[in-house]
Amino acid sequence: MDHFNDFDAVFSSKPDLAYDQQTIDQILRNRRSLENELFFDRLLKSLGVAQTTQLYPPRSNQDLRNLHERIITAPRADHQKQSLVYYILKDIPKAAQAAQSFADSCFLPKKYQIFIDGIWYLDKLKLEKALEFLTDPSLTPTFPSEILYTLCRHAPPENPTLALTYYHTVSPPLTTTKVLDAFFAVYCRGSITEAFFFSRSQGEHIHRHLFEKLVSFVHAEAGGTIRATRGVELIGLPFNEEEETWFEEYLVEGKGRSLYGAKDSVMMRKILTGRAREAVEFGKDLSGKVIDGVNWTSLMDGLQQDKA
Predict the structure, then answer these.
(1) Which tens digits make up the pLDDT trace of 105-120?
(2) If DSSP codes are grouped into helix, strand and coil, which group holds residue 236?
């Protein structure tokens, strides 16, 4: 479509088109959920278009015309600008065919369509559908860290596979603490053991940061079977000497000392690793406590008998 810069030609089925209020409200809600920046906002900025939140969503036909004008006059390649027009056409209820017809008529490369389809679904917070497109092997990763962060933040807590699938398929850089921490929390929900070994794969400073995040994650969990299972998994991990030190420092003297069951975990770790004498000495502070059905006084008495 050589005349994609002609609004009436692009929207020939309804030149007086305007977004309905329901669509506008949903876009605004999703923008707030996405920390006040849609991926469409990012695409507009990549064209050099400013004031994106004032342009999108358009509130009237004239606003839609203005948005179209700002896109087509941007100093970028036609395919980039056509991609954003394609996105807008997808916004129109019952106009999916119009969007595809537009893409076909201007020979929009398939990888551009796939990327915009993924971004469009991501902005609608339809994450599983978005992932189908955004993991396509034909794509050159664009906004990969931001996409990973969105999947981490908005996927259901009980379903960590979306973010993990994207990470293992695309290998987005974990360049900020915000993205790293969000992704690691998802890793922890998926598997304590795998999260532990992932932390080891990072540099020393990040390794300790993530290790402490792992310990905090387990102890911050609400009580119950899941917490108990994760706690047992945590204290049974094969810590090296350095990690052993970090574990005790964090739970006894560091930021984790006020976490529920912090000292109990240290005590159990000492017992599990065969340090009975240390456990008895350390366990004096736990005398009389009953945690998850364990009477620490009785346990220490047993340990002292074993020593004897």
Answers:
(1) 889 999 999 999 999 9
(2) coil
Neighbours of 238 (CB within 10 A): 8
In whole angstroms, what is the distance from residue 148 CA to residue 89 CA? 26
| Cβ-based neighbours of 57, under 8 Å, separated by 6 or more | 19, 23, 24, 27, 28, 91
- Angle, alpha carbons 81-151-198 (nearest 5°): 125
Helices (H), the chain: 7-10, 21-33, 39-46, 52-55, 61-72, 78-91, 96-105, 110-123, 127-134, 144-154, 161-170, 177-190, 192-200, 204-220, 225-235, 241-248, 262-272, 276-282, 296-307
Residue type, 181: D
Q: Contact, 90 vs 99, CB < 8 A? A: yes
Does the predicted TM-score (pTM) go above 0.70? yes
Structure tokens at 16: 């007086």
3-state secondary structure of 295: strand
Contact present, 222 and 179 (Cβ < 8 Å): no
| Distances from the Cα of 184 to the Cα of 37, 207, 243, angstroms | 23, 11, 18
Angle at 21 between CA 16 and CA 22, to 5 degrees: 125
Distance in angstroms (rounded) separating the CA atoms of residues 256 and 183: 21
CA atoms within 13 A on the CB side of 212: 18
**Mean pLDDT lowest among 50-59, 259-268, 278-287:** 278-287
User: How far, in Å, CA of 41 to CA of 140, rounded?
Assistant: 19
